[in-house]
Amino acid sequence: MKSEAPCLRVPKVHGDEAIVLVRKLNLFNRGLKVEQVGDSLYIPLVREPLPIDLEELKKHLPELEASSYLFSERAERPLNVADVLEGRLPPHLLASLPKAMDFVGDIAIMELPPELEGYKKIIGEAVLKANKRVRTVLAKSGAVEGVYRVREFEVIAGVGKTETIHKEHGCVYHVDLAKAYFSPRLSHEHDRVASQVQSGETIVDMFAGVGPFSILIAKKCEGVQLFAIDINPDAVYYLKKNISANHVQEKVTPILGEVRQVVDEKLVRVADRVIMNLPEKAIEYVDVACKAIKPDGGIIHYYEFTSQPNPIETAKFRLIEAVKQNHRNMEKIFLARIVRATAPFTWQVVVDAEIR
Q1: What is the CATH number of domain 2-72?
Q2: Half-sphere exposure of 162 (CA within 13 A, CB side)
């Protein structure tokens, strides 16, 4: 389809500069394609430029010419947040927008840099407009902290809530993000670990949260028995709710309590596999994992945050030494890899290891 529209004709060599200026003046017509003819570019406009517009443009581009042209129409594409904010944020701040955000159910979660603090409400509304399924936009107000692993959030747009229902790998998770830890960025890890589990295994999920590891394993694997432990009462409340919602009551046993005490009292030498997703402090609980693993051995999925120059080798070394100190032997490391960057020069690392 073709449409005639007002335009600016500029030398091709000044095309990028011209498009930036036209956007700054809110004149750029996004529905039409920029066209090249010979050494000239024709830039589509939403309206005829006013004399004051032309005066501003000619300060930078004296060779431009106002005209009209028959343009090809652009195929419709989904809006992104930067599109919505163009003209509403100073151009230099558009570059500071987060490159990614997390989506948990119908909630979007952003981490805004300090320079965007004064624009957070505008940005939140732009996220709602660009993502029709989102009903609430949260801005992170701090780090994950405390024994319960919770983070503070600020509602910057939409419905004032932190509770939602999230779907992942065919499972349903009820979660309140202000009361229990949950990260959609670990979706691949949940599935990766579940794909390794064999029928008949007994698994101890030491820091289960609302259940993304345990419940997916229970859904995918026959004949397994999982003990899902967490010290956070709110996390265990949602864990129980999710066990019921996913119909895995016969496979997953939720346990509220401090993991060291729980293992000592109930789970010594029962596990074929232990999941240690507490990267801030997992090294402090290697002794508990060693105690939970069966006498003839089993698998540990160990997670750690590290900022060392060689994060993978550092995590492997720390785990090997900790296992050795607890009178177990490191039989084999199946995998060690970076899961994700968590801050500049800081990474979450996973090590899958067999111990005897």
Answers
A1: 3.30.70.2580
A2: 16
Cα–Cα distance, 14 to 54 (Å, whole number)? 16
Q: Check residue 198 and report its DSSP letter.
A: P
Place of tokens 């997992």: 282
Res. 78 pLDDT band, cuts 50 70 90 = low
So where are the chain's domains? Answer: 2-72, 81-161, 182-355
Say which residues have a Cβ less than 8 Å from residue 59's Cβ, sequence separation at least 6.
Answer: none
Q: How far is CA 49 from CA 31, 136, 321, in A?
A: 17, 38, 71
Q: Is the pLDDT of residue 76 over 70?
A: no
Best CA proximity match to 270, nearest among 213, 210, 229, 235: 229
* C-beta neighbour count of 247 within 10 angstroms: 11
CA distance 207 to 235: 10
d(CA 268, CA 204): 10
Say yes or no: domain 182-355 is CATH 3.40.50.150. yes
The per-residue pLDDT for 302 is 98
Each residue of 221-246: pLDDT tens digit?
A: 999 999 999 999 999 999 999 999 99
Please give the Cα distance from 128 to 300 (Å, whole number).
41
Q: Do domains 2-72 and 182-355 have the same CATH topology?
A: no
**Run of H or E residues at 317:** helix 311-325
Predicted confidence (pLDDT) at residue 43 exceeds the cutoff of 80: yes
Fold of 81-161: GMP Synthetase; Chain A, domain 3 (3.30.300)
156 neighbors 126 (Cβ within 8 angstroms): no
- How far apart CA 104 and CA 184 sit, in angstroms, is 7
